[in-house]
C-alpha cells in the first residue's frame, strides 16, 4: 500500500474546464509531487526511498540482531572447527543456512508494512459522520460507535476508530505505538521493532520457527562438543573450562526464545 | 495528505459535486467483495447495468486474486523454503491480479466513466475498504 504516485492520469481538460483553471493546473504539474511516505500521518519511519518501514522506536531490534549474530559467531568460531574434525562438515553448513534464514526473516518482519490501513480521506470521514446520529454536544466525545454487519449470517460488531476516522474491518486493530490501524493485528513486537499483522505475519512466523531450529541446533551441537571433549579422558567440568565461557550467551538466547 | 500528488487533487480543477462510497460486502465471509447495490446518486449519470457490470468484474478479479489453487500453493511452499527471498525476484499471484485490477479500473475510467464526469478510485488506495466514486459537476454541453 505504500505505492508511489506514478500512474497514468486522465487529462482533466477532457471535462471542459475553464481556461484559467487549466493554466493553474499546468503550473501545479511543475511542482514536485510528494510521495505518500513523506506525508504519512502515522508514527512510522521510512528509509530507502520508502522501501523500508520501521516503527517510531526501533525497540530492541538491535539487541535481537546482536544476540543472534554474536551467538552464531561464537558457535562458528569455537564449536565448528572441533565438530568438523570429529563429526561432519555439514554442521557449519546447516548452521549457516539456519542463520541466514533467521536473519532474513527477522529483517523482512521488521522492514515490511504489517498491513497498515490508510486513514479515511476527509470526504469519507464526513460521509461516515453523516450516517451516524450525533445527538451529543461537540465538546463531549461520544461513546465508541459500533456498526453491526453480517458475516456468513453471524453478527459482528465493527468498531469506529477515532484516529483513522473509519469503521475498522473485522480483525483490524489500532496500534497506539505506531498510531495506525493494522489489518489482522496480532501484536506490536518490540524484539522485532514493528507491528505483526496480516502482511508480515508469514515472515514473523518463519522467523520464530527458524530461530527455534537454530537455537536447538546450536544447543545440540554444544552438548555434543562438551560430551566429546569429556570423552577424551577429561572430566565434564574441565572441558567446559577449556572451551571459552560463552554458555551464558546460549542460555540467554534459549530463555528469550 | 492534501499535499500528495493524487488524481483527486488534480480533479479539484473540475469541481467535485459529490462522492459515493461503496462498502464491502461481507455476506460471504471476509473475502474481498464489494456491494453491487446501485447508488441513487449515480442514477442520472450512468446506466445501472454498466455500473453493475464493472463492479461484478472487480469482484471476480478480487475473488481470483484470493483463490487458493495449485499455483498459490507451489508459490507458498517455494517461498517458505527460501525464507521468502523469492519474493524479491518475482511477484505473488495476488500482486499480479492487483495490477490487473488497476489496469481494468484505468481502462474503465478512460472509456466509460470520464466521459460521464465520474471517476472510480482503485480500492487499494483506500485499503480495500471502499470503492470511491467521485461525481463531478456536469459541465458537458454535448451529451
From TrEMBL, chain A:
Compartmental location: Membrane
Principal location: membrane
Membrane topology category: Multi-pass membrane protein
EC number, UniProt record: 2.3.1.225
A GO term for molecular function: protein-cysteine S-palmitoyltransferase activity
Top-rank EC class of the record's enzyme: transferase
Location of the Palmitoyltransferase DHHC domain: 157-233
Pfam family, one: DHHC
Origin superkingdom: Eukaryota
GO cellular component, one term: Golgi apparatus
Biological process, per Gene Ontology: protein targeting to membrane
Transmembrane regions: 52-77, 89-107, 203-226
Keywords annotated in UniProt: Acyltransferase, Membrane, Transferase, Transmembrane, Transmembrane helix
Reactions this protein catalyses: L-cysteinyl-[protein] + hexadecanoyl-CoA = S-hexadecanoyl-L-cysteinyl-[protein] + CoA
Domain remark text: The DHHC domain is required for palmitoyltransferase activity.
Similarity section: Belongs to the DHHC palmitoyltransferase family.
Protein name: Palmitoyltransferase
TrEMBL record, chain B:
Membrane-spanning segments: none
Keywords: Golgi apparatus, Lipoprotein, Membrane, Palmitate
Entry superkingdom: Eukaryota
Entry's family note: Belongs to the ERF4 family.
InterPro entries: Golgin_A_7/ERF4, Ras_palmitoyltransferase
Topological type in the membrane: Lipid-anchor
Biological processes per GO annotation: Golgi to plasma membrane protein transport; protein targeting to membrane
Residue ranges of domain Golgin subfamily A member 7/ERF4 in the record: 20-132
Taxonomic lineage: Eukaryota, Metazoa, Chordata, Craniata, Vertebrata
Compartment list: Golgi apparatus membrane
Protein name: Golgin subfamily A member 7
Described function: May be involved in protein transport from Golgi to cell surface. The ZDHHC9-GOLGA7 complex is a palmitoyltransferase specific for HRAS and NRAS.
One Gene Ontology term, aspect cellular component: Golgi membrane
Pfam families assigned to the protein according to its UniProt record, in alphabetical order: Erf4 (PF10256)
Record organism: Eleginops maclovinus
Amino acid at each position: 500500500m505504500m505505492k508511489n504516485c506514478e500512474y497514468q492520469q486522465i487529462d482533466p481538460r477532457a471535462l471542459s474546464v475553464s481556461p484559467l483553471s487549466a493554466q493553474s493546473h499546468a503550473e501545479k504539474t511543475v511542482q514536485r509531487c510528494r510521495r505518500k511516505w513523506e506525508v504519512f500521518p502515522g508514527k512510522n519511519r521510512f528509509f530507502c526511498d520508502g522501501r523500508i518501514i520501521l516503527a517510531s522506536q526501533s525497540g530492541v531490534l538491535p539487541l535481537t540482531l546482536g544476540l543472534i549474530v554474536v551467538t552464531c559467531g561464537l558457535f562458528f568460531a569455537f564449536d565448528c572447527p572441533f565438530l568438523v574434525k570429529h563429526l561432519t562438515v555439514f554442521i557449519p553448513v546447516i548452521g549457516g543456512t539456519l542463520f541466514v534464514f533467521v536473519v532474513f526473516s527477522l529483517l523482512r518482519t521488521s522492514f515490511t508494512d504489517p498491513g497498515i490501513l490508510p486513514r479515511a480521506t476527509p470526504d469519507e470521514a464526513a460521509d461516515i459522520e453523516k450516517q451516524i446520529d450525533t445527538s451529543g454536544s461537540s465538546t463531549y466525545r461520544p461513546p465508541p460507535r459500533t456498526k453491526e454487519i453480517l458475516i456468513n449470517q453471524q453478527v459482528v460488531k465493527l468498531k469506529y476508530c477515532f484516529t483513522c476516522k473509519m469503521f475498522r474491518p473485522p480483525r483490524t486493530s489500532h496500534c497506539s505505538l505506531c498510531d495506525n490501524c493494522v489489518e489482522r493485528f496480532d501484536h506490536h513486537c518490540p524484539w522485532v521493532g514493528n507491528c505483526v499483522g496480516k502482511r508480515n505475519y508469514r515472515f514473523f512466523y518463519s522467523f520464530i520457527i527458524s530461530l527455534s531450529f537454530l537455537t536447538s541446533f546450536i544447543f545440540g551441537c554444544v552438548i555434543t562438543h562438551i560430551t566429546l571433549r569429556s570423552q577424551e579422558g577429561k572430566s565434564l567440568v574441565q572441558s567446559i573450562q577449556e572451551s571459552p565461557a560463552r554458555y551464558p550467551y546460549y542460555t540467554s538466547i534459549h530463555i528469550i526464545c | 495528505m492534501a499535499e500528495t500528488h493524487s488524481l483527486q487533487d488534480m480533479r479539484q480543477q473540475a469541481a467535485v459535486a459529490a462522492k459515493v462510497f461503496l462498502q464491502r460486502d461481507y455476506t460471504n465471509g471476509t473475502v474481498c467483495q464489494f456491494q453491487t447495490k446501485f447508488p441513487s446518486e449515480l442514477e442520472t449519470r450512468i446506466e445501472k447495468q454498466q455500473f453493475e457490470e464493472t463492479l461484478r468484474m472487480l469482484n471476480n478479479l478480487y475473488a481470483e486474486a484470493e483463490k487458493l489453487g495449485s499455483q498459490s500453493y507451489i508459490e507458498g511452499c517455494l517461498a517458505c523454503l527460501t525464507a521468502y527471498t523469492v519474493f524479491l525476484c518475482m511477484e505473488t499471484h495476488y500482486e499480479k491480479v492487483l495490477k490487473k485490477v488497476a489496469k481494468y479500473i484505468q481502462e474503465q475510467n478512460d472509456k466509460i466513466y470520464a466521459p460521464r464526469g465520474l471517476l472510480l478510485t482503485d480500492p487499494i488506495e483506500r485499503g480495500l475498504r471502499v470503492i470511491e466514486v467521485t461525481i463531478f459537476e456536469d459541465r458537458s454541453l454535448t451529451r
